[in-house]
Amino acid sequence: MSNDVWTTNLSAQYDGASMVWVMVSGALVWIMIPGVGLLYSGMSRKKHALSLLWASMMAICLVSFQWYFWGYSLAFGTAHSKFLGSLEHFCLMGVLGENGGSAGLPDIVFCFFQGMFAMITGCIMLGGACERARLGPMMVFLFIWMTIVYCPVAMWTWNTDGWLNVLGAYDFAGGGPVHQASGVGALAYALWCGKRRDPLTQKGIPKYRPHSVTSVVLGTVFLWFGWFGFNGGSSGDASLRGFYANVNTNLAAACGGLTWMFLDWFRCGHKWTTIGMCSGAVAGLVGITPAAGFVPVYFAVPIGCITAVCCNYGVDLKDILHIDDGMDVFAIHGIGGFIGSMLTGLFAADYVAASDFGVSINGGWINHYYRQLGLQLAACCSIDLWSFVVTSIILNVMNRIPFLKIRLSEEEEDLGTDATQIGEFTYQESNMFIPEPVRSRVVPGDANNADVNAVPLPEKSSTDEEKHDTDTV
């Protein structure tokens, strides 16, 4: 393929419907990122709610730059080893009409779509340090983490020469690079940040009610909606396989939501919990992600149900491990991605992949290809181990650098991340005070109409008045 726009009609080399489908799918994945922010924000306490929305938007901005700078090249560069890509596409040099990343798409379309996956992965991972992380070091950590954790794992899984791809592990839309890497990374972030400060739970893990169930529901809606692009677009073309994957996606999410809700009815005092239904839907979506383009539609039901049950009980692991994963990122994404990947090895069918003409796989256990389950286990263990060990190294090195300490002080945590790190709040309340930065000042003549968050001007002393008179003369 050529990148010469003067002599070649680059667009004519590709199927226009496929390019449109993948571009639209990428835009759908984008909406998932603020969806994660809304989900996390609603599940947090009010004084930290804005910081989690901030983290989702920051992840979009920072990872967009990292992906442009060298992320895409490290993950999908062609002159590479089986472990990490090269820097031949540094700052997206040469990324236009060739098809080095995907056989059926121009590089620029494939780069856009995969960039959305990078953003959502970083955003999910940041939930591990909710309510106690310093935001400046968080940005430094995210850039480093995307470079030396996510990019290698994405290369192993999706690059045609990546070692997991060559080995034959199945991962349709990111059960390993997106969910397991972020879930295990969040577990390491939560471990090294330590548990949240709470005088009432010195010996246990603090647990708080979500401050806004409405935000949780809205975030789940954004995620569910965007997941149709996440899984459907991973076919890489406008084939039946991508649309089949979307049917699997919706069914698994629905069954996951019902399963978690019914399970919580028995575990939570016979209440039909909204949080449980939303958590189950997300768990079902995570579980079907690696399997969506591989399994027959009737297996989406057990995948959604089994993943929801495992993730529901996985939430209790933080009490056993004594790791304060307040957003349950590891339970839903780490465990859910692992379960989904293993079930893919059981239920993958060769004819489902063949619905995208020219794609051929051996299938899983239902095709009597029993080796596939071992390949899936090898992929899961390697990704989980890499994410946890490397994330821990990054955080421990940063924590030894004074200006990169990863956690807030006790006083800052008591005041809330929003007040001490941002100076803005999700909700305006009459008794709320913004210590820094000062946003406005009250003009003495308008004192009766003063904003409740404004800082009044200091009263003039007699010396100031005399000075003013002197200056006037």
Automatic annotation (TrEMBL):
<feature type="transmembrane region" description="Helical">
    <location>
        <begin position="138"/>
        <end position="158"/>
    </location>
</feature>
<feature type="transmembrane region" description="Helical">
    <location>
        <begin position="52"/>
        <end position="70"/>
    </location>
</feature>
<dbReference type="GO" id="GO:0005886">
    <property type="term" value="C:plasma membrane"/>
</dbReference>
<feature type="transmembrane region" description="Helical">
    <location>
        <begin position="170"/>
        <end position="192"/>
    </location>
</feature>
<keyword id="KW-0813">Transport</keyword>
<feature type="transmembrane region" description="Helical">
    <location>
        <begin position="20"/>
        <end position="40"/>
    </location>
</feature>
<dbReference type="GO" id="GO:0007124">
    <property type="term" value="P:pseudohyphal growth"/>
</dbReference>
<feature type="transmembrane region" description="Helical">
    <location>
        <begin position="298"/>
        <end position="317"/>
    </location>
</feature>
<feature type="transmembrane region" description="Helical">
    <location>
        <begin position="373"/>
        <end position="398"/>
    </location>
</feature>
<keyword id="KW-0812">Transmembrane</keyword>
<feature type="region of interest" description="Disordered">
    <location>
        <begin position="443"/>
        <end position="473"/>
    </location>
</feature>
<feature type="transmembrane region" description="Helical">
    <location>
        <begin position="329"/>
        <end position="353"/>
    </location>
</feature>
<dbReference type="InterPro" id="IPR001905">
    <property type="entry name" value="Ammonium_transpt"/>
</dbReference>
<dbReference type="InterPro" id="IPR018047">
    <property type="entry name" value="Ammonium_transpt_CS"/>
</dbReference>
<feature type="compositionally biased region" description="Basic and acidic residues">
    <location>
        <begin position="461"/>
        <end position="473"/>
    </location>
</feature>
<dbReference type="GO" id="GO:0019740">
    <property type="term" value="P:nitrogen utilization"/>
</dbReference>
<feature type="transmembrane region" description="Helical">
    <location>
        <begin position="103"/>
        <end position="126"/>
    </location>
</feature>
<feature type="transmembrane region" description="Helical">
    <location>
        <begin position="242"/>
        <end position="263"/>
    </location>
</feature>
<feature type="domain" description="Ammonium transporter AmtB-like">
    <location>
        <begin position="20"/>
        <end position="427"/>
    </location>
</feature>
<comment type="similarity">
    <text>Belongs to the ammonia transporter channel (TC 1.A.11.2) family.</text>
</comment>
<keyword id="KW-0924">Ammonia transport</keyword>
<dbReference type="InterPro" id="IPR024041">
    <property type="entry name" value="NH4_transpt_AmtB-like_dom"/>
</dbReference>
<dbReference type="Pfam" id="PF00909">
    <property type="entry name" value="Ammonium_transp"/>
</dbReference>
<dbReference type="InterPro" id="IPR029020">
    <property type="entry name" value="Ammonium/urea_transptr"/>
</dbReference>
<dbReference type="GO" id="GO:0008519">
    <property type="term" value="F:ammonium channel activity"/>
</dbReference>
<feature type="transmembrane region" description="Helical">
    <location>
        <begin position="213"/>
        <end position="230"/>
    </location>
</feature>
<keyword id="KW-1133">Transmembrane helix</keyword>
<feature type="transmembrane region" description="Helical">
    <location>
        <begin position="275"/>
        <end position="292"/>
    </location>
</feature>
<dbReference type="GO" id="GO:1900430">
    <property type="term" value="P:positive regulation of filamentous growth of a population of unicellular organisms"/>
</dbReference>
<keyword id="KW-0472">Membrane</keyword>
<protein>
    <recommendedName>
        <fullName>Ammonium transporter</fullName>
    </recommendedName>
</protein>
